[in-house]
Write a structure and sequence with these properties.
The chain is mostly helical and 111 residues long. The protein is built from five helices and two strands. It has one domain.
Length: 111
């Protein structure tokens, strides 16, 4: 699977529901495991884990690396996980970073 496809899946999850300070939450906004059938929202990192179950996967590392690079381009020194949880962060900002990361991944795949 291409990195852009992993990121597109993550974007779809975020568009369905986004959260902070937990990888995933249920409809009552309670933290749940990533494998829970009750999950309704994910953080920027948790959304990727839904597709790539192995936290040591090269695909996951590459997707996270591209997300981190997009965030660094915005003059942030935070990792994607900490950036996601910043006070005032919005779902729209997370979606914008995902879209930029997908574009970057697709360009990399073409070269």
């Amino acid at each position: 699977m291409k990195t852009s496809e992993v990121l597109k899946f993550g974007l779809e999850q975020i568009q369905r529901g986004w959260t902070i300070r937990a990888f995933a939450r249920d409809a009552n906004f309670q933290p749940v495991g990533l494998e829970s059938p009750n999950t309704v929202c994910w953080c920027a990192v948790g959304a990727l884990y839904q597709k790539i179950k192995n936290p040591y996967s090269e695909q996951l590392k590459e997707a996270l690396s591209i997300l981190d690079s997009v965030i660094r381009e915005q003059n942030s020194t935070l990792s994607i996980l900490h950036w996601n949880d910043q006070p005032g962060r919005t779902k729209e900002q997370v979606i914008a970073v995902y879209r930029a990361a997908i574009e970057k991944a697709e360009q990399k795949e073409l070269s």
